């Protein structure tokens, strides 16, 4: 399901002393089935941007088209949009509200009026996927550790099987293995179901490893849009925007400065191959 | 010398209740932890989700009382209700979710709240507030509402709030989880500065392996127990063991380890790009 953003602007608290032009003339085409990374300094507008995509925030000016339909048309169903575009919030606390883990995850599919059996299947599938163990099924989501809360919030959105899955810093607070497991699962789902995934992240390592396309925000505007390799080649500019490249990119840079014949790399895998190739030549 | 933190056989159990309030289960979140932290140390705590890191942090801040064992902070028993404020004055805490920490409706008042409570004279408070907000790069937001900040901005304000209290010890629970790479570097740098210049004891809980390479000591937790401790180099030299605890090593360490497995004579426990480059030269 393609999404088109056409000259989108958004201003918080317009007309007050705290007016903030958070999105400035955003033009993006998000085709079906892409795995997209969205990066940018804190306050660059990432969360504001993605909340436009499921209608939580309405653009101050400009248009957004979902599958060719103007989402601000009177006859466009925002409710339906929210089941198609699933959003995992930056703070899981903003998403959890039920009395048990299972009830919390069930909430979305139940709300979609799916048959009871389907609701249950989706719920347990999603809970398993995020690695929540059985003894926590009936625990209150508020009595979990930070990373466990995060997992439950992700499961709640996965259970809705959205066409577009947006995750706002889903791995913040996850332990390293949990981070890899969940991103691996999301990458699998993305391929299996051919859905669009938008991953907002401050981990350059994660986006380099998983996404096909990387969009970089800076002070409310899109500054770069390309493959991770293309984008990270601009690491100097990224640094001046508060970002960086993955650590391996700097390793390759440093080796090249010492005369090594190695190409750029953005993942450990790539770097390993490059270095070994050069080493075996001696 | 008086220890900053002294824990002996520390235990904490949460009691989980069902909707009717009946006891449903007991979770031993901290399970026999013995730990000494000397004043001026920079200690990092790593561990999988649910391994008990935040629970220990809350015990150090006297929010949760030890179920068994004892815990002294700056010589004060955290179980002694009369010492509550003294304990909190010695050890300031930055929570995992900054929303839980924001009190006032204006950023600078929020940062001033802590020192005000400690009875710091008004003139000094504003100097401290300004210093702290500058250190975290949020001075230009001093008159804003904390609720209208982005995630990372809120986290910086929470850190400034603790810095302004100038405690002897700061406990930070994943302070950089929502920060951009530059913000993360800045916060870690600020913590090292406080540690070096003002001898503030730092306890840093994090899931980012590269943030702990400058620590004096790294502690690894697993299911409520301390399972590894040592210098960053000692800990990160054991790549497989770290992975078995659901953790990782910095990318540069991992790359060197992968190359070694593939036959290149790289040493274990490489922690920086510079060290990597040196080791690589030796292989040529
Ligand atoms: N409710 C609000 N009212 C006023 N300004 C806001 C509000 N929410 C966010 N802002 C401002 O809008 C800008 C963009 O915020 P946004 O939350 O989209 O950033 P972000 O890129 O998601 O940052 P982070 O990485 O820290 O989460 C920031 O400067 C922020 O201070
Ligand atoms: N309020 C609570 N009531 C009951 N159990 C709890 C409560 N808070 C935490 N727990 C449980 O105690 C254990 C330790 O939790 P803790 O928050 O200390 O973990 P953590 O190491 O900080 O994890 P994370 O990296 O996810 O933040 C977990 O199994 C968690 O489910
Ligand atoms: Mg955000
Ligand atoms: Mg925690």
What's the quick description here?
Chain A is an alpha/beta fold and 282 residues long. Chain A contains eleven helices and ten strands.
Largest sheet of chain A: 6 strands, mixed
Name the helix and strand elements of chain A from N-terminus to C-terminus, one letter apiece: EEEHEEHEHHHEHEHEEHHHH
Percent range of helical residues of chain A: 40-55%
> The CATH topology of chain B is what?
Rossmann fold
Give the low-confidence spans of chain B: none
Secondary structure tally, helices of chain A: 11
Radius of gyration based on Cα positions of chain B: 20 Å
Strand order of the largest sheet of chain A: 6-7-8-3-9-10
Task: Please provide a written account of the structure.
The complex is a heterodimer of chains A (282) and B (284). Chain A is of the alpha/beta class. Chain A is built from 11 helices and 10 strands. In chain A, strands 6-7-8-3-9-10 form a 6-stranded mixed sheet, with helices on both faces. In chain A, strands 2-1-4-5 form a 4-stranded antiparallel sheet, with helices on one face. In chain A, strand 1 and strand 2 form a beta hairpin. In chain A, helix 3 crosses helix 4 and helix 4 (116-129) packs across helix 5 (146-158). The longest helix of chain A is centred in the middle third of the chain and has 18 residues, at 176-193. The model of chain A has no long low-confidence stretch (mean pLDDT 94). By secondary structure, chain B is α/β, with parallel strands linked by helices. Chain B has a single domain (5-249), classed as Rossmann fold. Chain B is built from 10 helices and 10 strands. Chain B has a 6-stranded mixed sheet, sandwiched between helices. In chain B, helix 6 links the parallel strand 7 (169-173) and strand 8 (201-205). Chain B is globular. The termini of chain B are far apart. Classes of the chains: A alpha/beta (282), B alpha/beta (284). Chains A and B meet through helix 5, helix 6, helix 10 and helix 11 of A and helix 5, helix 6, helix 9 and helix 10 of B. The structure holds adenosine-5'-triphosphate (2 copies) and magnesium ion (MG) (2 copies). One adenosine-5'-triphosphate sits between chains A (12-13, 18, 20, 22, 40, 42-48, 90) and B (148-153, 178).
